[in-house]
UniProtKB/TrEMBL annotation:
This is 2-C-methyl-D-erythritol 4-phosphate cytidylyltransferase. Belongs to the IspD/TarI cytidylyltransferase family. IspD subfamily. CDD domains: CDP-ME_synthetase. Pathway: Isoprenoid biosynthesis; isopentenyl diphosphate biosynthesis via DXP pathway; isopentenyl diphosphate from 1-deoxy-D-xylulose 5-phosphate: step 2/6. PANTHER family: 2-C-METHYL-D-ERYTHRITOL 4-PHOSPHATE CYTIDYLYLTRANSFERASE, CHLOROPLASTIC. One of its GO terms (molecular function) is 2-C-methyl-D-erythritol 4-phosphate cytidylyltransferase activity. The lineage of its organism: Bacteria, Bacillati, Bacillota, Clostridia, Eubacteriales.
Amino acid sequence: MANIGIVIPAAGQGKRMRAGCNKQFLVLMGQPILAHTIRVFEESNFVSEIVIVGAEGDISVIKELVYHQGFQKVAAVCKGGVLRQDSVRAGVRALSPAIQRIVVHDGARPLLTLQAFNQFLEETQEYPAAIMGVSIKDTVKRVNLAGNVLETLPREDLRSVQTPQVFDRGILEVAHYQAVSAGYYGTDDASLLEWMGYPVQMVEGMQENIKVTTPEDLWLAERILAMRES
């Protein structure tokens, strides 16, 4: 299960954070959010390479972060595209040919633990495509544009999808190629395979593995890390 490559899309500017900069550089418990995210993969014995994909104006900042944190597995920091899907595709191309199993993980999802990540890899090693998700606690209703409730969706059939997501390289590359050819954009990499009609396995994630998108998320992430340290 070794020789796994990690692609971390970190090119989003995070307008909902209202921070005036890339949210992944915001400080969380004394370290940039992106540093927390990278460290899990740096410490995993299953990971051989890490590629970070950033906005053009952030490349030098990311390289400096990698240098000062002493991350040894970061093989490349490359320029992202207009949308997340474009950035992931660039990151996959930047991995060495020896990497045949790829994990995609959001740069702004810094609370994944090493134990949870390694367990995820073990549980999904037989699947060509697998994702992490958690059960939904709230009742979910489908509404129209006017806000009228159309139906209540069965909660037991729904999951809130997270990263990491893991794929055999060949399958992921084909999915991205076909999506580009058709002009199709999905909300995550798994949705590209679903669009192709390819099966994707869901495994249980962790509720704490939140994506830091708003100031409230940053506050919650700080509380979670503080609890772990105590």
